[in-house]
Amino acid sequence: MIVMKFGGSSVADAPSIERVVNIIRGYLPQHPVIVVSAMSKTTRKLLRAAELAAGGDLAAGTTQLEELKAYHMEVIRGLRATAVESEVDGYFNEIERLLSGLAILREFTPRGRDRIAAYGELISSKILVEALRRAGVNARWLDARQFIITDDDHTRARPLFDMANPKIVHALRPCLEAGQIPVTQGYIGSTIDGITTTLGFEGSDYTAAIIGAALDAQDIQIWTDVNGIMTADPALLPEARTVKILSFAEAKELTHFGAKVLHPKTLFPAHEKAIPVHIYNSKQPDAPGTVIALEAPPARTPVKSLAYKKPISLVTIISNGSLPRLRFFKLVFDALERAGLFAYIAAISELRVALAVDSSEMTQALINQLRHAAQTMVTHNHAIVCLVGERLKQRPGIVADVFQALNDMRFDLISQGASEHSLALIVHEANLETALKRLHELLFQNPDPALFY
Ligand code: ADP
Ligand code: MG
């Protein structure tokens, strides 16, 4: 069997959903399990409506919800999937009642956010099932909350694999054996007590990998709006090429440093079970796509892709000498954890630590926590540029070329050596596009046809 995950843009409107139905029909002999995201922008709009209601403006929240409902109903009519209309209507009524509750309580907790956000996937999956049935596919709707069991860390819950895996097998195997095509939701899960949780924004890719690993799938397919993993984000660099094959190690680095084409956690369950991950374009289903495999073949061109992340803040912490060095470092990393900040890059020098973190108001909390032991400086408007390629560390010439290409730019922090496969630089956010363009020109002027389309 295989897992096929369709992202929000792949189910954004009736023609897109029809394309998805055709793609799925082409894979029926491989026994697919279908994982689907909410229709584009739905999750954000649901949360916005709820925020408005909880902020006291129930009317504005309801108007936003009505628009969302009208849009979904239009898609249903476009697909002539009217059999599902009353069920979808029922979901929207539930959301409306929840908005009223939020308007009374005037608070919107993480638990409430997950409850609201989950409707996007519940509804899109109902619509997809009906569209499949109308095309003669024996599709069966399954509620992911029955088997994606997680902890209760709402809005970024982690799966409890010991509980989830047997439930996945129990829920999905019988369907597959009965010749049905299970259709379930990405992104959402539930605690042991049945409280709805979510795996974090864009977490549908992760759901596909969790299910694929639990069922020992032959393939995990991520269907999106680009031809695969590309040499850079095509939204920024239209000249980007598609990469044919990447190793799990390379893909992990890329997604960690911001390539949003895949949720970073996706690769862990797949790698552990050595299940290949394919990335395909639902708008161009015949394009060959990218495969992520255990090993990528040796290449003439060492770098496979460029990732970036912004906005990034740079935190420099200078010990006042009152603590022994190791205690000081421990204090810094403990404070980071308490502030909920993650250091993408860290460098240590004598009694100084420099860290690249996501820009957020929590950097102030960090400063406060360290006040007694250190002087902390924070600067904003930075970005990370990261080059990823197999065994980059063993290609020292690359570093010289990169610095030469960017010789008029300032790097406030550099990371090389911690990873075999990446080189990461902090640049000013204003220089990001120029840096990416120049590096892309440098690294992909003569791309190896064995590796790139
Ligand atoms: P989905 O809704 O299908 O999950 P996403 O928007 O999450 O799709 O991911 C696809 C987007 O990822 C692309 O439209 C592209 O702009 C962006 N992206 C960023 N980096 C890359 C990259 N290296 N290769 C391909 N796409 C990338
Ligand atoms: Mg995505």
Mind explaining what this structure looks like?
- The chain is an alpha/beta fold and 453 residues long.
- The chain contains 13 helices and 16 strands.
- The chain has an 8-stranded mixed beta sheet, with helices on both faces. Strands 12-13-11-14-16-15 form a 6-stranded antiparallel beta sheet. Strands 5-6 form a two-stranded antiparallel ribbon.
- A hairpin with a 5-residue loop joins strand 15 and strand 16.
- Helix 2 runs antiparallel to helix 5.
- It binds adenosine-5'-diphosphate and magnesium ion.
- Magnesium ion (MG) binds next to loops.
Quickly list its features:
alpha/beta, six-stranded antiparallel β-sheet, 13 helices, 21% strand, binds adenosine-5'-diphosphate, binds magnesium ion
- Beta-strand content: 15-25%
**What small molecules does this complex bind?**
adenosine-5'-diphosphate, magnesium ion
Number of strands: 16
Q: What overall form do the CA principal axes indicate?
A: globular
Helix-strand pattern, N to C? EHEHHHHEHEEEHEEHHEEEHEEHEHEEH
The radius of gyration computed from the alpha-carbon positions, rounded to a whole number of angstroms, is 23 Å
Considering DSSP H and I runs of 4 or more, what fraction of the residues is helical? Answer: 25-40%
Strand order within the widest beta sheet: 3-4-2-1-7-9-10-8
The average pLDDT score comes to: 95
Structural class: alpha/beta
Distinct helical segment count: 13
- Runs in which pLDDT lies below 50 for 5 or more consecutive residues are none
